[in-house]
Structures are given as structure tokens and as C-alpha cells.
Batch of 4 targets.
Target 1
Amino acid sequence: MSAIMMSNEETGIFKKGLSRRPKEDEPIRLFIGTSEYEEPTIEQIYLFSIFKNTDHPVEVTFLRPSMFPDWKRQGWGTPFTCYRYAVPELCNFKGRAIYTDVDMINFRDIYHLWRTDLKGKPFGMVWDSLQMNDVKYKGTPQERGWWCDSVMVIDCEKAKEFIAPISAQAKWNGTYKWHFMEQIGSPYKNKSSKIVEEVDERWNSFDGSDTSYPYKDIKNVEKVEIPLEEIWQVHLTALSYQPWHPKYNPHAKASHSRQDIMEVYWRYNNIVKTIGGIK
């Protein structure tokens, strides 16, 4: 696991090492799911935004396919979909870790996410109120909504009870994600709240919207937007809107509806290019 540090100045230079950090300050362990080589732009922009907003030590580990060469990946939506569930074992089931997808921009000190009070539970996640669940839930209160694991705060020791060993995950037929969700009680929010602590929706704002908003009419949804200055971490999750458009993305390109977020993206893109982070 390598630690990558960045100066706090927006046009600063990437730095390595923890030498300027107090020894008693425990590093934040951040695992980022990403592809092998198709997303260097957003990887660098995401890292830039994280280190721009924190003075705390962060250990960053990119979860790439080359780390898991023997895994079955049939049915995955991305090249890294199920690697997130390996995190507790990668940490030897000790301490705390954060997992996020790569397609993010951070706006608030990630230390605040790291210090989330899990109230003794294994996981902290944002509730995704619009997630369409399996057809068996159609017409029930569970038709929409489940825990969104694209941002997770994990108590690695407590998580062991709910996650299969890496050796079993690697051979899993189908997508392990669905099994994991059943293990933690999703999409039954009240039942699963004994296992998952709800994290503030601003830590995983889907393309600038309020991910957890309790919509009454799920058939005619006009998403509730969060003002840019109130977003803590934006998840650029709509594949057509992703400006770097990875090759594994089968969707046509489209203009993002939140141009204020895109202005930040392109500004950070130019800064990172200037300091040599993107080739």
C-alpha cells in the first residue's frame, strides 16, 4: 500500500511520504476502485481534490484488475465492481478503511468522513432512494432504494461477519454485489440499519443531486439538486456524462446537466495537467 501526498496549495506539487505529518496522526486508509489504465484523468483529479482539502495523512490504494488476476468478472458493470468487498481482508480485518469509486470529486476534508461515528456497526453508507431493485420487489415499499456502496466507511473487523473470503469472492458465479446486499439486509432500510450506519448524503451526491431524498412519487421524479457549495463529495456516476468517457463505457456522450460541477472538473483538470499529473 503506497501513500501519496499532495500539497495544500491548488497549484502545488504532488509529494510522497508522511514525514510532514505528526506520528500520532493515524493515516486515513483510502481504497479507490478503478480500471487498469482507462481513467488516469479522473484518478488524478480525484486525488488532487482530496489532498487539496485535507491536512491529514492519506494512504491511497487503487484497486485495479491486475491486483486480482484470477477473479471472475462476468456481469460486472465496471472493471472494478466487486473489488471493494476485498478491502476488509486486505486490511487483515483490522482498523478502519474508506472505499470509494474513482469517479468522484472531493470538496470537504475526507477526515470528517473517516471519523464518522459508525455507532458500533460494520459499515457506513449513503442511502440511495432511487435505486431500482429486483423485480420481486415491484409494488412493495422496497421497489426503490438500497445502500449505496460506492462510498463506504468500513470497520474491517466487524465487516468480516458479512463478507465472504477473497478466495470465495474470486470464484463467485455472477455478481457478488447482490449477495453482499442481501447479507447486510438491503433493501430493507430499517432492518439493515443495525448493520449499516447512514452517512450524510452530501458525501455521495450523485451528479449533484440529493441521493437520499425521500421522493413520494417515484414514477415522476424531478431530482432534488444540492447547491455546489453544500456538496461534500460529488459522484459523477451517470456514464454518459463522464467527460473522460472510458472505453468500457457503452453509453453515448452527453453534456452534464450541472455545468457548475463541470467547471470545477475542467479547472482541476487543467491544474493537474500543468503540474504533470496527466499525460
Target 2
Amino acid sequence: MSKVIYATGVTGFIGQYFLKKIFKDYDTVLNFGRNKNITIYQSKKDPINTDFDIKLLDDYQSEKLVHLATYYNPKPKNSQEELQLKQSNFDFPVSLCTSLKKSGLKHIVATSSYMQLLGKNYTNLYTKTKSDFISWARPKFDLTEIFLFDTFGQNDKRNKVLDTFIKNAILNKDICVPSNNFNINLTHAFEVSDSIVNSLSLKPIEYMIKSNNQISIKKLAETVITQAKSSSKILPTFKSENLIDKIDYFPENIYINSLKLDFQEQIQERYNEIRKTYSF
């Protein structure tokens, strides 16, 4: 009998890594989209797209859902973006899980942001909608909540801080950084996906995936400039609150160091990809 797992967000950055990894343990992945469609993935077969039909689940039953889909927007500009946050991060997973529970869903693995570990003074609509779903799901399912820090890796289209620094360094453009000490934790998506897959066999509680790659923004910029042999200058131009230092409680860390490259080599690999992929 085919071993099936449910998912959301496998077309996203972390999701594409997860999809490759999960086939070691499962034969079939059903990915549920916000537009009420299902994509059926099976190893070495073309994906099948179909409209959501609860009867279809009779042939693809699973007790587990890995919820990766998220709409990231910590500073919505208008009421439309605020509504999209609620619909994407709360309404969609609530509606989906309510339907899947009728078909036997028991265990949800959901990724959260490390910003949700901060106190109420740091809550925004993005973290609130994410946390509201967790609060809704916790009494109804076995719930594994996994807090993620900053991530990076191949095929990243999000234009995050590391990629921005690399592109500036390639162009010999100056890099603006906080004037105060500001640390981030960077974890490669390859290792994040390994850790998420491993969590499926763990007790359903709170965890985090936090690598040893804790680095200041200034040091990260220096590293990129050195590796790129760039003439870019580092400009301390603004102040920013060091959020990681504001976290009082860290859950159990389930980070798996599975990538056989050290942090410098990981940055170099990403630099090489951007240099090759983008035309400047």
C-alpha cells in the first residue's frame, strides 16, 4: 500500500527541498494549494493537478500534514494586504485541516517564524496570523511546531540579506548595515528540510531549527566582500534592534548538520550560483 503524506507549500523555497527529501520515507505527497487544488507528487512521475475533492482522499489517506505554506508580509501597506495575511496564514490552513480531519488527519507539523518567540511587544499581523492558526490547531490535533530562523540556499528567489549582499558585492556596490551589533542565524534549506523530515518521528511538541551559523550582519558583509574580491564598502547607516537577543525561550533544537560544507563553503556555493545565474 502506498505511503502518503499531506503537505502545503511544496512549491516554495523550503518546500522544494522538503519534496526531494520526503520521498525517502513516503511514496506519495498530496500538496494542497490555496486556490482549492491538489497536486499529487510521486517519485519519478510527473505531478498530477486536480481540483480539491474530498472523495479523492479515500484513495490517498494520511494521518500527517506538513504545513509549510506561508504569506510573509510583516508590514502590510493596506487593508487588502492585511486581508491576504489572514486568508493565507489562518483561514486557508483552518479550512484545509477541518476538511482533512474528516478523512483521518491527526498530526500537523507546522513551521513558524522565530519572530513568534518574541514577546507581545514585537507582534505584528504576520506573526499574529501564524500564531492564531497554531492556537486553533493545538487542542484539535497532535501538533509539532517548528520555529525557523533565516534560511538560504540554491534557487532562492526571495532576495534575502545574503543574496542582496552577494549581488552588491558582484557589482562593487556599497553594502549598508546596522550601525549597532545585529546578529542573524543562517541555516541552509538543505539542512532545514532534513530536520523537518526527521521531526515526523519525534514527539509532537515545540522545536526549533537553529544552526551554528550565528553571525553579525557586518561580519556577513565582510565575508561576502572578501570571497567576491569586491571593492564594495560597508556603510553603517542605520540602527536596528537585535531581535535574537530579545528571545527569552528557545525550544529544543532539532537541527541536523547534514550538508558536508562548512559555512564559508556554503556562502561560496551561493555566490557562485548567483554569479552564474544572474546577468549584471
Target 3
Amino acid sequence: MLPPQDFSHQFVLSLIEISITKNPPHGGFLFVVYYTSQYMTLFLIFILGLCIGSFLNVIIIRLHDGASPLKGRSMCPQCKHTLAWYELIPLASFIIQQGRCRHCQAHISWQYPFVEFGTGVLFAMLSSPIFSYQFSVLSNFSITQLLNYLFLCILIVTFVTDLRWNLIYDAVVWPGIVLALLITLSPYHLLAALVGGGAFALQYILSRGAWVGSGDILLGAFLGLILGFPAILAALFLTYISGSLVALLLMSLGGKKTKDTLPLGCFMCAVAILLLLIR
């Protein structure tokens, strides 16, 4: 997914440059106001990401419990007390309550703040090249950007479910595949889907499901559709390199044995997020 050309940003900068030339104080003021508005917008996108991250936590937990993420109110998993709105404020409630339920004092999983904060940060990073001098948040806001947000959410949910339970849910990945197919007409993306899914399908057949699972095949095809070709090749390479390094590290620390498995989907999702951010 390529970002749109930043014509509006360049136009505004040209006007500010002309204003600075003719009236330096006035032009300098416009420069400060414009870039302040950009960073404020970026902050609001971070807050939006926090809220969406909170909903992603609901999806993650209820998928594992076999419940609908759209029905029923949130409750403490220990005492089953229905949570009030002020106990559901993303990140803030966890900090204020010191990571405990207000009613039974049970510990709240660190998954909640990590997913909320991580989603907020990734949304902000995906919105613009933060470390670039020339950027415009609003000019990059488009249908393509909305789709990238959605794909990012799918990757975050899959990362967490595979990390915690070694599960990649079809109900999460399939909608992403269907949506990507509807908007992807490029043969390079279709080829990448065949390469991504085919690479894991081959391993599945050769190992009879011992090396990878069927969820890895779907996830590989999904990554191909959103990354395209030849980016999928880089994704596969980085997935196995990062997975091998982590496996070696864990074995050297005594945390894993040779026969133990690692959640490969986590590395696939992390690499895909990285490639989405740097494209």
C-alpha cells in the first residue's frame, strides 16, 4: 500500500516560505502553527489508537473464550464484576488501579496496557514518517491509510493470540484476506500471496503439520496480499532470521529445548508491521 503524494503539504510549505520571505515574523508564526497542528493531530491519532487497542483486547480475550466481542459488557475475569466506564479508560485505568481489579484486587494481565499502548504508538507511527522533517498527517489520511490501520489491527490481534496460546484464528485472518483481495488488483500482490501462502503450505505438507500450522499458511497469504512482491521475500527471510535468533537466545538461557516450538506467527506479524511502517 503506497501512501498518496503529499501535494497539499508541499503547497502549504510553499505559502509559508513566501510569507517568511515577505514578512519573517508572520511567516515564522505560520510555520510554528502549522507544525504544531501536525503534531497535535499525531497525538490525537495516538489517543485513537489507545481506544482501538482497548477494543482489540476485548476481541483477543473473547475469541479465546469463545464469546462474541460485540455482546455483553466487560467484566473482571476473576470476580465477574461488571466494570464501570471509569475502569475501562485505556492505559489510565490500569495505572490508577495499579494493575489490580478494584473489587477483588486480582492482578490485571499486562496484555491490556501493552496492547493499548502499542496500538497507539503504531497508529501514530503509521500515520506519518515521524522522524522526517517534511511530513503532513492529514495529507496522508486516505482510504489506503484506513486500510493500513485495519491490517495493522489484524496483525496485532494475531501476534497476541499466537504468542499467548499458539493460535492463529481464521475468523481474524480471513476477513483481512477477503478485503485485501477486493482491493488488490496488482498481479504482484497476487503472486506474493501465492509465495507467502505456498512457502508455508509446502512446509506443512513436508512435515505433516509438525513445523507449521494451517494458520501460518493463511497468514503467509495475507502478508503477501498487503506487502506485495518482492517485499514478501524480505518478510519471509526476516521472519526466519529473527525466529532463529530468538530461538538460539532462549536455548542459551535454558528457556527452550531443541524440540520446543516457537510461535512463528508472532515473528511474521512483527516483520509485517515493520515493513508497513518503513515503506
Target 4
Amino acid sequence: MKMKVRIISAAVGIVLVIGVLFVAEMFPIFIGIILGLVNAIMTGEYLSAKKLHRKYMISIPCIALSLVTPVLVYYMNLMVVMYAFALVMMISLIFYHDHLSYDDTAFAIVGTLVITCGMTSISAMCVGGQYTSFYVVICLCVPWLSDAGAYFTGTFLGKHKLCPNISPKKTVEGAVGGIIFGMLSGIVAGMIFSSFIYGADKVYINYGGLALIGVLNSVIAILGDLCFSLIKRSCSIKDYGTIMPGHGGLLDRFDSVIFTAPLVYLFCRYAVLIAPAVSI
């Protein structure tokens, strides 16, 4: 029954993602707006894990930063925004030191910046509006399909625990299966975009780069998942939310994407994943 709920929830999520990508191909800024909303919800879930969402002197700046940053990256340098956020948080700590501890403030700042920077890197790749759908799909499908591959491989073949004190269900065999699935998902996604969406004669796709991203991001996805699992354990919660039946909160679903998307951004910044065929 639980698996059925997870599958239905995932199917609805896939349909929503496809709808967003369809609109974003016409209006690239739409990706920034949607990522801002997702960001804000995840930051709220993160703060709620430690009951900080009701401490408005820190929750409002954190959620505001998460909401606007994926849009602002289209128009301005984010260093000023990050500095302003850090300044506001430190001022809040000074003025409300009777109600805020340094530990809580640091928890809020670090988590907000990790979530925001991770998701905003997807927006940064889409600035200019070229190949928006490709970049978003690569950022999402590699960690998600790697996670699915790890789950099924671990379920049927898993014998050796990976990190039993943090995530008891993760196995070494599942991790290996996830890496293989991640590598294949990147290559298959590239083939689909080349053959059916953009046209093989119109784009060059770096399949070696996609395979490398698939392997590296599968490993990073495990680290991201373990990191947020450790935070959940320290806060004595099972899930970050209930917005996705069978999965938990958005942060439970995007925890790996937060850590893997920046690597895709860096690869696109200093190498080529996709380009017009005539330029190669």
C-alpha cells in the first residue's frame, strides 16, 4: 500500500515537472519562480525540524532569501544579496539575543544557504533560456533515478549496511546499484533529448560528461541524503513534512538535488554538456 502511494505521488510530481518545463521553454524566468516557491517551502520545512519557524525574526529572512534568490540570479550578482542576508541575521541575533541562541541562528543560516545555493544553481544554468528543459532534467533525473536504483538494488541484493547509525536501510550494494543507475540515467536522458526533443542534427551532447556527472552525482546524492538524514535524527523527526504522500516533505525529495545540482552547474560553466551542433 505504501509503495502504491509513493508511485502515485511520484507520478503526479512528474506530471507537474513536465508542465513546468513546458511553460519554462516559453518563459525561462518561470523556472526561477517555481524554484523560489520550492525553496521557500523546503526552508520552512528545515526550520520546522527544530521548531524555528515560529521565531519570525529568523524564519522570515530565511524564507525570503530562499524565495527571491532563484529569480534574482537572472538579473544581478548574488553576493550583495547573501551579504545582506547574513547582516540581517546577525543583527537579529544581537537585538533578540534573549530569545535566540547562536546555535539556532547558525542552524538557520547554514541550512538556508545550503538549500538556496543548491537550488539556485539550477536557475543559474537556465539564464539565457537555452536548453532549459535539458538542464533541469539532468539535475533532477540523475539523483532521483540513482536513489530509485539504490532502493531496488538494496531491497533485493543488499547485505552490507552502509551507514547503519544514520540511515539503517542503506546498503553498500544499493549504493553501487545507485551509481550504475545514475550513470545510465544521464546517458539515456541525453539520448532522449538528442533524438526526440532537440534533434540529433541540431545539438551536440557530451555523453562522456553525462556519464561522469551520473557517477559523481550518484555518490554526492548519497552524501546529501545522509546529511539531511543526520539532521532529522538530531531533531528527532521522521520526515521534514507531509506535502508528498509516501515521500514526506519536499526536502525529503530534494535533499540529494541540493547537493548535486551545483556540480552540474560547475560542469556547464567550465565544460560543455550540450551545444548547437554547428558550433562543435
